[in-house]
Amino acid sequence: MSQPIKIQKEDIIRIRFPKSEVLPNPIAVRERDRNLENALSLGNNDHVKVKLTFLDFDNNTFMIETTIWAVTEESVCLKGDLLLPKRSLVSVEY
């Protein structure tokens, strides 16, 4: 994975996301889901920002720093009605 390009969360509306899961196996997906739930708690309770690293359709790596407002089966919900597909997330750091 290349060095991520840091962008503002509002810039994700211009990104085309991959159609399939970017993580290599179900164990990595479960770990990401646990990290997202922890990041959601940190955001809701302590207003902590997290770093979300994700891939676009062309496998470019991007990173945003944001507070997670909600997590659904398919998406991560961010402030300003922005959605980031979970399938595109490579890592969650807090």
Distance between the termini: 20 Å
The class by helix and strand makeup works out as alpha+beta
Shape: globular
Mean pLDDT, to the nearest integer, reads 95
- The helix count comes to 1
Do you know the CATH topology?
SH3 type barrels
Give an overview of the whole structure.
The chain has one helix spanning 26-46, and strands spanning 5-6, 50-55, 61-66, 68-71, 75-78, 82-85, 89-93. The longest helix has 21 residues, at 26-46. It has one helix and seven strands, in the order E-H-E-E-E-E-E-E. Helix content is 22%, strand content 33%. Strand 5 (75-78) and strand 6 form a beta hairpin. The mean pLDDT is 95. The protein has 94 residues and is an alpha+beta fold. It has one domain: SH3 type barrels (Roll), CATH 2.30.30.100. The relative contact order is 0.29. Strands 1-3-2-7 form a four-stranded mixed sheet, covered by helices on one side. A three-stranded antiparallel sheet has the order 4-5-6.
Topology:
Blueprint: E1 5-6, H1 26-46, E2 50-55, E3 61-66, E4 68-71, E5 75-78, E6 82-85, E7 89-93
Parallel strand pairs: 1-3
Antiparallel strand pairs: 2-3, 2-7, 4-5, 5-6
Write a brief caption for the model.
By secondary structure, the chain is of the alpha+beta class. Helix content is 22%, strand content 33%.
Pick out its properties:
94 residues, alpha+beta, SH3 type barrels, four-stranded mixed beta sheet, three-stranded antiparallel beta sheet, 1 helix, 22% helix, globular
